Amino acid sequence: MSDFHQNGIITDFHNLTRRPLDALEAELVQFSRRRPMSLILPSLFTELEGPALANIVEELARVPYLSEVVIGLDRADREQFLHARRFFSRLPQHHRILWNDGPGLRGLDAELEAQGLAPQQPGKGRNVWYCAGYVQASGRSEVVALHDCDILTYDRSLLARLFYPVAHPYFNYEFCKGYYPRIADGRLNGRVSRLMVTPLLRALKQIHGPLPYLEYLDSYRYPLSGEFAMRSEVLDGIRIPADWGLEIGVLSEVHRNYSTKRLCQVDLADAYDHKHQPVSEQDASGGLNRMSLDIAKALYRKLATQGVTFSAEGFRTLKATYYRLALDLIEAYDHDAVMNGLSLDRHGEEQAVELFATNLLEAGSVFLDNPGERPFIPSWNRVRAAIPDLPARMAEVVERDNTGLG
């Protein structure tokens, strides 16, 4: 049961009464007549073989208000794509799979690359970007939601609560971000959000002052959650990173484009568990190691657009300030866990903080050494300006993939 406190500069939708799901869905069915809704599911093929996605699909099959489900499928060959078609065929809603590694979409990607418009690296951001372009081209919805495909505790009430603030015809919200407690198997999870993002934002405020952008990001209870909903037109004008900076990048773009009065967050669940990333201390290309690097770079780039100037000396100061704040937070989390009968590995938490502190400097070096880097995927507005018929041709490719191939 969450509290009713409005603790930041965006509206917070709480879960105060455990309102029955049937009541929420009945309203959403009514809302869908005015604001049709689509869901984006960015997925790796391996997630079709995991423990979470089969249950997610079973739950989605019972959702009565969805107009469309769009699945972005990464790392799949032809046989795996055909398996995915069979896997998702149980969905009664109109659904289409974007076979991102198929020849049709690869051909369009090469065309975008020739114009300097293609995503520069594979990843969740690239997957979501192509799905967003397809949703715009299909024209089936006015509200779009996105959530991950590895949620072990998924039930469809999460989706109903995620859609509600943006789908309600008398609310004026353009964007809604989900949050929840990261607790599973008696442990407190969510290390990157707890131990990196929160103390990093506070360190940046301590050094650079209470910038509106930093106050805004610090208003989100879980800025790294993979669940958000938005009006479909929001997808047109945002530029997002292709890497693990996706969530921070999306929050930054909606802040740039909309008043904070049009943005909100919602309590989605009492319990949330999904695939846990390893720390990967020895491998900067994977796990929380890579994630923390990408997130730090995304924050630095966005702050630079706000007029913040960085230097090597400034990054060293930031590392020291962050490190002290993060250690203080570990103690607070430890005490909170004890009171709630949860476990927390203080040694592992401090090791993670040491890695994150090192990566703040590494991300700073990358930022300073690559001033000409193009870190963000161009907006779909720009793509349509350069290649007006590409979204329509992408829709044709997706249709052929989903209805052909034998």
From TrEMBL:
The keyword Glycosyltransferase applies. Keywords: Glycosyltransferase, Transferase. It is an enzyme of class 2 (transferase). InterPro entries: Nucleotide-diphossugar_trans. One of its GO terms (molecular function) is glycosyltransferase activity. Its EC number is 2.4.1.266. This is Glucosyl-3-phosphoglycerate synthase. It comes from Halomonas stenophila.
